[in-house]
Amino acid sequence: MNGHPNNPLQDKTLESILKFLVEQYGWVELGSRIKIKCFVNNPSIKSSLAFLRKTPWAREKVESLYLNTKQNGS
Questions:
Q1: Is residue 62 within 8 Å of 17, Cβ to Cβ?
Q2: Would you state the pLDDT for residue 3?
Q3: What is the 3-state secondary structure (H, E, C) of the chain?
Q4: Residue 34: CB partners within 8 Å, gap ≥ 6?
Q5: How is the chain split into domains, by residue range?
Q6: What is the pLDDT of residue 1?
Q7: Rounded-to-integer distance, Cα 70 and Cα 35, Å
Q8: Looking at residue 5, what is its pLDDT?
């Protein structure tokens, strides 16, 4: 097995993570949980992905929320 077998994000793309969170919470709730302008002002998957790909701290927050959501069974 290649990569990091214990990494729960190993087979997840940033796009699939973001789509999951938007489906779970919607943009309004997502923007209140993670204070990022691209989640609040005219949000879209495309603009959010562009921002998250070049902003490591924001990506970490999104991945953390994803893991917490999956862990809590939401």
A1: yes
A2: 55
A3: CCCCCCCCCCCCCHHHHHHHHHHHHHHHHHHHHCCCHHHHCCCCHHHHHHHHHHCHHHHHHHHHHHHHHHHCCC
A4: 58, 61, 62, 65
A5: 17-71
A6: 42
A7: 20
A8: 62
Question: What fold, for 17-71?
Answer: 1.10.720
Side chain identity at 18, as an amino acid letter?
L
- The whole-number pLDDT of residue 57 equals 97
**Tokens 């609040």, residue located:** 40
pLDDT < 70 positions in the chain: 1-5, 74
Exposure string (b/e) for 48-74, b if CB count within 10 Å is 16 or more?
bbeebeeeeebbebbbebbeebeeeee
